[in-house]
Design goal:
By secondary structure, the chain is of the alpha+beta class. Helix content is 19%, strand content 37%. It has one domain: Alpha-Beta Plaits (2-Layer Sandwich). The protein is built from 6 helices and 12 strands.
């Protein structure tokens, strides 16, 4: 089967989860919505383009290999918000802060990040795909918009090195080797890579064999990018011992 594989590495990443109040937690690995957003940015698709965004969402099936979740880092900062008024609708952050007669309150906000995380992404196309792997690969190599890892404050620290490959299995695709990030054969030491890796994928539970496969419901299937609305989907997960390879 044909796959598009690429890697994600950054000094900081933030894979948003359900946010309550001032807390903005992060998952340990990129969500489906985050990868869809990254592909959309590469292709130059804007949030308000519901047609092309819907085509992209429906055409890709994703899998992620987490080589390292990185180190959790929490940022505390203050933010200003007006007093709640259900009769007033704010279209932008500027409107929210500049409205006359608004009393601004200061709240403490927390933002979580993953530092030095490393992930591999594999993409398969569905039967109703409106895009092809060549388009996606070319876009990732020469993106229309800046790519980032969940938030605009989290740029990539290394090329995604996207490539189209033919593999017999999903795990083989996810185990694709990439050029070293730091120095030949020393990435495991300098990046403090753990001795285990975790695979996350959608679709057939038997696509990856070995180990105890768990299945969960995750809420990261985007339905409306403008309103930040998501629905649930089924995702499989398994953790295995890591075998480090020296990239050539």
């Amino acid at each position: 089967m044909d796959y598009l594989v690429f890697r994600l590495y950054g000094a900081m990443a933030s894979w948003g989860e359900a946010a309550v109040g001032g807390d903005r937690p992060t998952a340990t690995y990129p969500s489906r919505s985050a990868i869809i957003g990254l592909l959309a940015a590469a292709l130059g698709i804007k949030r308000e383009d519901n047609v092309r965004m819907g085509q992209l969402i429906s055409c890709v099936r994703l899998a992620v290999k987490q080589t390292s979740a990185g180190v959790l880092n929490r940022d505390f900062h203050t933010a200003q918000v007006p007093s709640f008024n259900k009769k007033v609708v704010h279209n932008t952050r500027k409107d929210e802060l500049s409205g006359e007669g608004h009393k601004l309150n200061t709240i403490l906000s927390k933002r979580d990040y993953r530092c030095d995380g490393l992930w591999t992404v594999a993409i398969r196309l569905t039967e109703q795909a409106e895009f092809d792997l060549v388009q996606l690969s070319t876009a990732l190599q020469k993106p229309k918009f800046t790519l980032y890892l969940g938030r605009k404050s989290c740029p990539l620290s290394a090329p995604v090195s996207a490539r189209q490959i033919f593999c017999e299995s999903l795990q083989q695709a996810l185990d694709t080797e990439f050029p070293p990030l730091l120095s030949e054969g020393k990435d495991p030491f300098w990046l403090r890579l753990p001795k285990q890796v975790t695979y996350y994928w959608q679709g057939n539970k038997d696509d990856i064999h070995g180990g105890h496969v768990e299945t969960h419901q995750v809420w990261d299937q985007p339905t409306d990018r403008l309103r930040w609305q998501f629905t649930s989907r089924e995702e499989h997960r398994v953790t295995k011992e890591l075998v480090h390879h020296v990239s050539k």
